[in-house]
Design brief:
Low-confidence stretches: 1-22
Shape: globular
Largest sheet: 9 strands, mixed
Number of strands: 37
Number of domains: 5
Mean pLDDT: 88
Distance between the termini: 99 Å
CATH superfamily of the largest domain: Bira Bifunctional Protein, Domain 2
Oligomer: single chain
Number of helices: 25
CATH architecture of the largest domain: 2-Layer Sandwich
Structural class: alpha+beta
């Protein structure tokens, strides 16, 4: 057993070693020394929470170190220890904290960054937090005291907040008073968001300038003035208030400490650099980009090449960690944010590094080498991260190539209209519909002597933002607390329960006015773990309300109802929609059986990567790099149905230590953050950590049927399936369709009859094609003799009812056989107008088919294109072919 004095002696020796001026600290050593220091101060060291938040409706991502501890500050959960330290992965790309547009253009802003933090939950407060910070920075890390400044909250009369005199007095014992600066509410009163825990804070700033620069201007004048070498390195937040929805402040139940130190900035200071990107946090990634691109990084702020490299090495970190923590790129929500970050990196590398092929995925290995020791999820999910990024690169580079064709058409049209400005609506459509970067359109336009309508483009962008805000806008009022009662979830055992409303709040959105309620005994399962939230009825003796949805927020189970009871304090009866719940829990239980079957058939590399469980169907995403064969799907389906037939009883472990669950063989969800105690669901050999609702016996599932198997993302396959009532309904519909087909075919052997139909159809199609060719041959001779001499060139304008394929074949033949010719064919096949233009090779440089067809297509209200020798256009106005014919004669 180590005595306290021995521990202190050990720490003193550790300090002396660090004070050595010859000791260079790598970023890994800097991170480790932070954790070691606070471990020596009796803090529990905990791992970083996932960067992606699954069960917090107020945030998509962890944007600060305190996010995972929010429930502790609010008193909803009991902390695992009174003093904690960690390094937390953070992402600031949306909402109030959004640094995305600054990344690459300065030396210190990032999308993903690490926040080193120490936390006290009702234990120590300002005095100790200040002492720890000062000792660590000056004694452990050896930062010269004369390079440091601190700020304290000056107070705010509008909120009756006094100056933080305590913090000032504590700082006086460590630093001279002329280095303690008053800070306003914006800089020195920290708030998590529009509502939530908050309090005064004390920032520590470091002056990294040269002695010559310091002699000219005092660091006092540069603190909080966006100077790249006078930067905030640590923020000590003294959490003592809760900001309510009505903007008022209320005291928290206890005083807490929440600190956050920017790891990348700390490395810049300790490694003697003037930019975060010059530290070994980024230099290995930069070196790899230099190797792959052939471009040299010089660190110049205004150099577009260097900006691009900074964007790439920053963004690859954010995207890799998000994917490793369970968030795949997609077209909505958090997935859209990740896709946007990745596409920003691809766009910069395409434009300024000349990278026309995927290469970002090759940086993942470097990132693993740098950070895999502290963040093992990077190692475990490395193959998935690499494959997903490569797939996204392939896809977006194709988008860019296709976009370049669209931009060229837009430029040609603009020039044809004798304009110098690309219209904002079309430029925005390229960006919004086709994903083509607006700034890339701008660069291409400028190279051709054109501009884009910048104001119009920004106006279109603002319209889109407003539409998005209106769709998601929601005003949430403060909670109204009724009688204090214990709040329990009873839905694992019953579908109905007597209950009281313990608190309620009003919610307004685009659909109207609703109320959220918390119940003393709630049978309603809150959305989570892939399973949708319960619906049902909440009623008393005189009133009945529809429960529209149920979610979980800050540990509270919240049901949304369509009105406010006249007497909210009355006794209520809560009833879950039993049919939907039974179907949902059958689908949830069968998801566990499916997971196990997939691992048995495909291999233990299969891991769950996402799921949806509702009453009508289930969706299951899993890691696998090949499309499943029909044989594999059948085998998986049979294995699941065998488990259903075996009538396996549920074994439920509601509150067991997480390690015990893992020792029993339980698997956890991808990217999930678990507590010390968990719930484990077991059906025979299937064992998973899960908070969802389940059947009591697999026989209740009835039957399992896979409906589809597809790709969800690179390295991720998706199965959609049904069970129970829906499976029975599926087979009934299938049987009905077979009966109807049998009646139509007048045969009981449906397969044989359809094979005969296909055979007959193939034979008839061959005959029709032969007739078309004969008809086309007859036309060619007539058309050859119909060319008119126009000066020294030959023109043919012809109307026909031939189909598009036949016309194309003839035009290609004619433009080869008839020199110096332009061939224009106007077709009305199937009552659809079509214009086809062919230009012989000797004229194609001066008479481009694409320009001709575009002009004629105006008459049929259509559009099209092609190459200089051949082009087509379809349209809507069949009658316009006559005008197109007359116009064509004048070419």
């Amino acid at each position: 057993m180590i005595t306290k004095s021995a521990k202190n002696l050990k720490f003193a020796c550790y300090q002396n070693l660090l004070k050595s001026k010859t000791l260079y600290m790598t970023s890994q050593e800097i991170r480790q020394k932070f954790l070691d220091y606070f471990k020596s101060k009796d803090h529990l060291i905990v791992p970083s929470a996932p960067i992606v938040l699954k069960d917090d409706p107020t945030l998509m991502f962890s944007n600060s170190g305190m996010t995972q501890f929010k429930d502790f500050f609010l008193g909803y959960k009991t902390p695992t220890a009174p003093k904690i330290a960690d390094t937390q992965k953070c992402l600031r790309v949306s909402g109030k904290h959004n640094d995305l547009d600054d990344v690459g253009r300065d030396t210190y802003h990032h999308t993903m960054f690490e926040m080193l933090g120490n936390w006290s939950f009702g234990d120590y407060f300002k005095k100790e937090a200040i002492a720890f910070a000062w000792e660590l920075l000056t004694e452990v890390y050896g930062i010269p005291k004369e390079n440091l400044y601190v700020t304290v909250f000056e107070g705010d009369s509008s909120e009756n907040l006094e100056r933080d005199q305590d913090a000032y007095d504590f700082w006086k014992s460590h630093i001279s008073e002329d280095r303690i600066i008053n800070g306003n509410k914006k800089d020195n009163f920290w708030e998590m968001g529009e509502s939530g825990p908050c309090g005064p804070c004390s920032e520590i700033h470091i002056d990294l300038r040269t002695p010559e620069e310091k002699a000219k201007v005092s660091g006092l004048e540069l603190v909080n003035n966006d100077h790249p070498q006078v930067v905030e390195v640590w923020n000590l937040v003294f959490m003592e208030f809760n900001r309510k929805a009505d903007k008022s402040l209320e005291k928290l139940p206890a005083q807490h400490v929440d600190t956050g130190m920017g790891f990348e900035r700390l490395c810049m200071a300790l490694q003697g650099k003037s930019s975060n990107y010059d530290t070994d946090v980024f230099t290995p990634l930069i070196a790899k980009v230099e190797e792959l691109s052939g471009k040299k990084y010089t660190g110049i702020l205004e150099d577009e090449k260097d900006i691009a490299i900074r964007v790439v090495v920053d963004h690859i970190r954010a995207v890799s960690f998000a994917i490793a923590d369970g968030q795949l790129p997609s077209n909505g929500g958090a997935g859209y944010v990740i896709r946007r970050i990745l596409r920003r990196a691809i766009s910069y590398s395409y434009r300024f590094l000349g990278m026309k092929e995927p290469f970002l995925f090759e940086l993942v290995t470097v990132l693993q080498q740098q950070m895999g020791k502290f963040f093992p999820e990077l190692q475990k999910q490395g193959k998935l991260v690499t494959e997903v990024i490569k797939s996204e690169e392939d896809s977006f580079l194709k988008t860019i190539e296709n976009g370049l064709i669209r931009v060229e058409k837009l430029i040609q049209q603009t020039m044809a209209d004798q304009s110098k400005v690309l219209p904002s609506e079309e430029v925005f459509e390229l960006y919004d519909t086709y994903g083509f970067p607006g700034d890339l359109t701008r660069i291409i336009a400028e190279e051709r002597g054109l501009t884009i309508d910048e104001k119009g483009f920004e106006a279109e962008m603002e319209k889109q933002k407003q539409r998005s805000k209106q769709d998601s806008a929601q005003k949430v009022y403060d909670w109204v607390t009724l009688e204090e009662r214990e709040e329990n979830f009873v839905g694992y055992d019953k579908f109905e329960s007597d209950t009281y409303i313990t608190r309620y709040r009003k919610v307004e959105n685009k659909d109207g006015e609703f109320y959220q309620v918390v119940l003393s005994n709630s049978p309603f399962y809150p959305e989570g773990g892939g399973q949708i939230g319960d619906k049902g009825i909440l009623e008393n003796a005189t009133e009945s309300f529809e429960v529209l949805d149920t979610k979980k927020e800050n540990g509270l189970i919240i049901s949304l109802i369509n009105g406010l009871p006249k007497d909210a304090s009355a006794v209520f009866y809560a009833k879950v929609n039993a049919t939907d719940r039974k179907n949902s829990q059958a689908n949830h239980s069968v998801t566990h059986l499916l997971h196990e079957a997939l691992r048995e058939v495909l291999g233990t590399h299969v891991e769950q990567k996402g799921s949806f469980v509702g009453p009508d169907y289930l969706r299951f995403d899993f890691s696998h790099f090949n499309k499943m064969t029909e044989e594999e799907l059948t085998l998986v389906e049979n294995k699941v149905n065998q488990k259903i037939k075996e009538s396996i009883a549920l074994q439920e472990f509601r509150n067991i230590p997480i390690q015990e669950a893992f020792d029993k063989g339980a698997t956890g969800l991808f990217g999930e953050k678990y507590g010390d105690y968990v719930r484990m669901i077991q059906f025979g050999s299937s064992k998973e950590l899960c908070g969802g609702t389940h059947v009591k016996n697999t026989s209740e599932i009835g039957h399992f049927k896979i409906v589809s198997e597809s790709s969800a993302a690179a390295g991720i396959r998706r199965i959609e399936a049904i069970s129970g009532d829906k499976s029975e309904e599926y087979f009934k519909n299938l049987e009905k369709q077979i009966i109807e087909l049998s009646q139509l075919l007048k045969s009981k052997d449906v397969v044989k009859s359809i094979e005969k139909l296909i055979e007959d159809n193939t034979s008839l199609k061959s005959e029709v094609d032969a007739l078309k060719k004969e008809k086309a041959k007859g036309e060619i001779g007539d058309w050859k003799s119909s060319y008119e001499l126009k000066g020294d060139k030959q023109l043919l304008v012809k109307k026909t009812s031939l189909d598009a394929g036949s016309v194309k074949d003839i035009v290609f033949q004619l433009k080869k056989e008839i020199p110096t010719s332009v061939t224009i064919i106007l077709s009305n096949a199937d009552d659809k107008p079509m214009i086809t233009v062919g230009v012989s090779d000797d004229l194609a440089t001066n008479y481009q088919a694409g320009n001709i067809v575009k002009e004629l297509a105006k008459e049929i209200q259509g559009g099209g294109g092609g190459n200089p020798g051949f082009a087509t256009a379809g349209g809507k106005n069949l009658a316009g072919l006559e005008n197109a014919y007359e116009k064509a004669l004048t070419i």
